[in-house]
Model the fold of this input.
Amino acid sequence: MAPIRLGVVGLSAEGSWASRSHLPHLLQSDDYAITALQNSSAEAASRAVAKYQLPGKVACYGSISELVDDANVDMVVVSVKVPHHYELLKAALAAPTKKDVFVEWPLAANLREAEELTGLAAARGVRTMVGLQARQNPSIRRARELVASGALGDILGTTMLGNGLVFGPQVTSDLLYMLPIEHGANLLTIPAGHAIDALCYVLGEFKHLHATLANNRPELSLVDSDGNHVRSVAKSAHDYVAVEGTLLRGGVASVVYQGGSSLTGKDFYWEINGSKASLILEADSGHVQMFHPTLKLATPPSSSHSVYGSGPGPKVEEVLVDKAANLSYNVGLAWDAFVDKGPGSVTTFEDALVRHRMIDAIYKSNETGTRQSYL
Amino acid sequence: MAPIRLGVVGLSAEGSWASRSHLPHLLQSDDYAITALQNSSAEAASRAVAKYQLPGKVACYGSISELVDDANVDMVVVSVKVPHHYELLKAALAAPTKKDVFVEWPLAANLREAEELTGLAAARGVRTMVGLQARQNPSIRRARELVASGALGDILGTTMLGNGLVFGPQVTSDLLYMLPIEHGANLLTIPAGHAIDALCYVLGEFKHLHATLANNRPELSLVDSDGNHVRSVAKSAHDYVAVEGTLLRGGVASVVYQGGSSLTGKDFYWEINGSKASLILEADSGHVQMFHPTLKLATPPSSSHSVYGSGPGPKVEEVLVDKAANLSYNVGLAWDAFVDKGPGSVTTFEDALVRHRMIDAIYKSNETGTRQSYL
Done:
């Protein structure tokens, strides 16, 4: 089959998420060919072509309208900051010839945009994919299998603790765009959003939830690359996220995501407790869409353990799963799945819309003090 | 000063919480003398006197009315199952001669009873004490001091995970009384109640909270002392407690208490995260009113750590505090505090009433799906 021709928005010669994650996979795949780039200017796009030694003929554009007019593009790949997703996707979905679309998570800056874009994609009949790549993580896929197999018995509850790295006391200039809540790129939507997406991928959606959010640090210190304070900057996005609720398939879920780095060694800690066994997923980073947690299965050694903890303790054994060589591992599994290869799965706009609705429910619950449903 | 003469309800020759916790302290204290016991019968009380070789003359009673009529009793100590607290305290508070009262936590089976008893005690002008003895735990007292000193900076949030031992898949006959929710002696009120009381002792009360409760195991297996199944018994009390909210002094608190024993090593895990440092309290049991957590202080090694986790990790050091020799340690600190000795504190009916109001708010939030306040 001829490779799918990709027009990529956001592959920068200065380095970017796209260059570290998508590019290594796409370059070694026979299923995809990058045929066009759009950057801030055609020259910038050319620099990226040169820098990454992209094979074949690559058209270089400085505007989305040129890219979407290119008949040699089958699929538009949007890998830029969230606030730009809407306009780029809207253009791609209005292209003269139908183009499939990929976009990083979050799909859009808010629910309204996400709904509109999902509707446009459905109306146009194009295929969609969203970078909720925690779903491709080997330990998370294995956890999903174990839960589905009944190995844990009935799910009683699950607790997830994470730190988002962003929204500690300091911020660097490249991340200033995350500070205004209306940009939709923050602790809740990105690190917590990816992690809660993984939770729901493994355990199913919430029946209802409530949330407590806080903006403990309404001012951050903007620092230079040496860590020196430049000036104070205002932040309206939340830096503490607590979500709790009942899962549709049973059990109670509690999620706490904090800004900055953990001092307690809990940058990512997730336990899933069932009537027969528990799972423990741990990682050094709360960005579970990028970093791979270890997976452990904890089982009671004998039935006598359950009588008030008497007898020997539980048995905790690591479940061995593939480890990623680099950031393109999870992303690559999704690209493979898009052409029906490998063990990964495709996450569509519709899937992402469910997650946007959940995030909206979290905001609403925090504002109103009431339990919310989102399905 | 003459010792305070105690009339104790619930000291059994067959062993009891009172015999393991109150008795060892009271026997070695010059401040207290046990002058009367009330058990199921005068004979049962006599057996306890003989079994524990109580010094001096101890009157033995089979009814609370006899005990409260005894002019040689200055203070009535109620250490029996929660469903009996109300009638016993009501009798003690109506005694012909004024008597101070001690009662184990929970003060009563529900908020209505607790309010009535607190009102009666205040009207009678007696001193009260409630066994919320986690407040006496050395690591918890030290955590409170560290928070108050500003060592942690501003409190950003706190997360507490615990297992209650009770309400795993099995139950023994001595704990059957905990199963009906109307008895008010369950996972929420006892292990979680003590632990949340410790949280509020250290960090202050909740501004508002919401809660998700579940009764994942509406039937338990009643087992004999060898762990053999006898029959299934119905349980109406919850076995999963998730509470989340904003603290009055700032920060977000999340608490998860589960039934049974943990398979994940999180029988008690509590972190308190401040803008300058964090505290970690850990124990092998979620009954933090009985077992002493270790206390660790986690600090960032340098300011550079906070820029996206670069540089060396945080420094985690144990804070050394006294360790208890036995179950009478925490209880003893409260008895000492009642006579203005030692570093402990007295927890009054009024203090306990705040905790009862919180528990009522937790139930209401779970039932209505709304955020609740209780102060």
Observations:
- The two ends of chain B are 38 Å apart (CA to CA).
- The mean pLDDT of chain B is 96.
- DSSP finds nine helices and 17 strands in chain B.
- Residues 47 and 53 of chain B are 10 Å apart (CA to CA).
